[in-house]
Amino acid sequence: MSESYAEKMLNAIESGQLEEAKKAFAWALREDDDEILFNLAEQLYALGFLHQAQRTYLKLLQRYPAEDELRTALAEIAIDEGNNDEALAYLAQIKPDSPAYLQSLLVAADLYQTEEQFEVTEEKLQAAYQLAPTEPAVLFALGEYYYATGLFTPAIQYYFALIQAGVAEFARVDIAGRLGMAYAQSGKFDQALGYLKQVAPGYLTSDIRFQTGLTELNLGDLKAAIVTLKELIEDDDQYASAYPALAQAYLQENHVSQALKVAQEGLGVDEYNEQLFALAGDLAGRLGETTLVEKYLTKAHELDPDNLAITLKLSNYYLSQNDHEANLAVLTIVNKAAVDPQVEWNLAQSYQALEKFDAAAQAYENARPTYWENLTFLKQLLGFYQENGDQALLLDTLEHALTLAPDDPELTELEAQYQAF
Question: Keyword annotations for this protein (predicted)?
């Protein structure tokens, strides 16, 4: 049997002879039979030759105007090319009694999802589900839609239905992997790990391996998490998210030096990750590496000056070093944007140390409602009132503090001191 022009075209594409492919394509449209052309259109679409696939489908649609399957194919090409109005025009021609109507609903859902019209997307997918509740393409489309929009509980429902139907893979996606990821994102780590461990080797992506390690970490299986994450980094050392997770696993195992080393390696991969800099700062602090603490926390703050948690870490470091000018420089900017009780407490301590008593009094007053039951705060406040000479507020605060800790030696000594007057 002689080679068709479609086969000549595909062979020419494979060998990089695009001019020959162009000539063979022209002859294929003229000479090859319709079944060959339909198969050619599918292969061209899969190879990314959208214009040629479109021409082929249009040629077939001229011959078979009642074949709505051709319209759904043309709509998919139009979506890929960003011609959504054209795609809608094709889909509008497909009526509910058409054999291609189910596919047209799925294509329409894809279109509306690209336009972020999520309510319409869901409506189309649920309509498809009503028509064919056991159809794998429908179940997969619903699972992918809910997964992509962060609605993991309904996504689990449809992925699980695929597993029950014996569908292990669809559209080059491992369903056990998707199900495991969805369970993990829902916080159901036991179920997640069971499915993540079932992923076929050919689908064991870095994302799947990372989620497996993270799930083991969340389940407290630190040794397994360390093995999984170390192996991931060995195979894909540019997977930045693995480093903080591995550092956390080492930290929970009390291997702080190893945790810091991993965090530092991660910074070599992702030098703009403020959370990793903050983690490295925390780890350095546990090891007493004060120079590194300041270096890492300062960098984290520079990368994200609006991150209050990082700002407070840096502030706490400056307080521990009695660097009150630096602390005020960091916190006064934050304080203008939004009052936070921890910021106010930290400000109060530095204002007091620098003998800016009016500012300290205001900051303590701002923090007081939040920390009125915090003994550490109350003791610092008592010290401020002693230094500031405000005996009435001191006695009021002392009385309250003694209700919280009546046997505290510092408080009872202070009480005795004032009772002596």
Answer: TPR repeat
